[in-house]
From TrEMBL:
Function according to Swiss-Prot or TrEMBL: Catalyzes the transfer of a phosphate group to glutamate to form L-glutamate 5-phosphate.
Pathway: Amino-acid biosynthesis; L-proline biosynthesis; L-glutamate 5-semialdehyde from L-glutamate: step 1/2
Domain PUA: 275-359
Protein name: Glutamate 5-kinase
PROSITE patterns per the UniProt record, alphabetical: GLUTAMATE_5_KINASE, PUA
Source organism of the structure: Paenibacillus puldeungensis
Taxon lineage: Bacteria, Bacillati, Bacillota, Bacilli, Bacillales
Length: 368
């Protein structure tokens, strides 16, 4: 099968702080993408820059902060972005398609399936899908905000082989280099720990959003889905290919595990938990390292009004999120059997549909 690559380009790489699109930058990225497509790779582009590209043409002096202004700027800028990408790619005989997605599309399994079918067909026809958030219909609480998370979800959805996140910084540094020039680059991250989160700061420019932090979030989502990630910078001919071959200016994040089935992707990244189960150290070990189901004996506390079949989040006593699963008991039933060994649960319950609180097939671990 052809290798599939998702490339994400941030606003900071496409626009200037005064706003407006950098056409030379668009041409450069289009050339890099086209060269990989000609080498028989399947490419998907997730591009930001609609708001940053559009605000000046509308007459706003700086990147707008109010939602309706951002939406207006994005509506203008998205058209500009597409026009420029399409023209630049046409020079290589490559056609490009616009795909606009929202978070709610990913929460709905049917819509995710539809998006995936459309994208698959574009790839079959050698058209480059150019994806952005549908800013005009996204309100704040439903927004991805930055496109880093969107690019990771797309990479998982289409089971990409690599996710390349391009930004204005050549990788993750031990501190934001704009604040501390003595910071040094981390070339490879094998596991995304809390230490990695601690060194990642916010956006470095007036047009970017999310900064390194959202790129780490994205790397985590992708790596859980079995997709390795590169975060860095390219601005020379051939550098995108070099980044793909492991020789890029940036940070490589290793993937953990194999590609996730669609159901587990939904469970981990798009579902809404209705409550929380706090588990003890033995249950944590069984879930995370033992590949086992969660039994009542390991559950020490619950919150929320969940019902059988709902999604719940599982945390340890320190409040660390361990994963999510589909619960086999209502919240009321759970409170009666907290911490009980299975023999006691059977005695106590009138009928036991399933002994496990969460079966291992309906569980996804979110701890790296
Ligand atoms: N530890 C870090 N290492 C590197 N960059 C960092 C770090 N912490 C914060 N940043 C900032 O993250 C910025 C990139 O994110 P962002 O501005 O959102 O770009 P984009 O528009 O490409 O998504 C960099 O310009 C940098 O200032
Ligand atoms: N959908 C928005 C993305 C916003 C944004 O700034 O994202 P990013 O540059 O990836 O941090 C746009 O196109 O302007």
């Amino acid at each position: 099968m052809l290798r599939r690559i998702v490339v994400k380009i941030g606003s900071s790489s496409l626009t200037s702080s005064e706003g407006g699109l950098n056409r030379d930058a668009v041409q450069y990225y289009a050339n890099e993408l086209a060269n990989l497509m000609k080498a028989d790779l399947q490419l998907l582009l997730v591009t930001s820059g609609a708001v940053a590209a559009g605000f000046r043409e509308i007459g706003y002096p700086e990147r707008p902060k109010l939602l309706h202004e951002k939406q207006a700027a994005a509506a203008v800028g998205q058209a500009l972005l597409m026009q420029n990408y399409r023209e630049a790619l046409a020079e290589h005989g490559i056609s490009a398609a616009q795909v606009l997605l929202t978070r709610s599309d990913f929460q709905n399994r049917k819509r995710t399936g539809n998006a995936s079918m459309a994208i698959e067909e574009l790839l079959r026809q050698n058209v480059l899908p150019i994806i952005n958030e549908n800013d005009t219909v996204s309100i704040d609480e439903l927004k991805f905000g930055d496109n880093d998370t969107l690019s990771a979800l797309v990479a998982n959805l289409i089971k990409a082989d690599h996710l390349i996140i391009l930004t204005d910084m050549d990788g993750l540094y031990t501190k934001d280099p704009r604040i501390d020039p003595s910071a040094s680059r981390i070339n490879r991250v094998t596991e995304i720990t809390s230490d990695i989160y601690a060194i990642a700061g916010g956006a470095g420019s007036s047009v970017g959003t999310g900064g390194m932090r959202s790129k780490i979030d994205a790397a985590k989502v992708a790596s859980l889905g079995g997709v390795p990630v590169f975060v860095g910078k390219v601005d020379q001919p051939g550098e995108l290919r070099a980044a793909l071959l492991g020789d890029g200016r940036g940070t490589y994040f290793e993937a953990h595990g194999a590609a996730l089935p669609r159901k587990k992707q939904w469970l981990g990244f798009f579902s809404t938990p209705f409550g929380t189960l706090t588990v003890d150290a033995g249950a944590e070990e069984a879930l995370i390292h033992g590949g086992r189901s969660l039994l009542p004996v390991g559950v020490k506390q619950t919150t929320g009004h969940f019902h059988t079949g709902d999604v719940v989040e599982v945390v340890n006593k320190a409040g660390e999120v361990l994963g999510r699963g589909i619960v086999n008991y209502d919240a009321d039933q759970m409170s009666d059997i907290l911490g009980l060994p299975s023999t006691e649960v059977i005695k106590k319950m009138e009928s036991v549909h399933r002994l496990e609180v969460i079966h291992r097939d309906e569980w996804i671990s979110l701890k790296a």
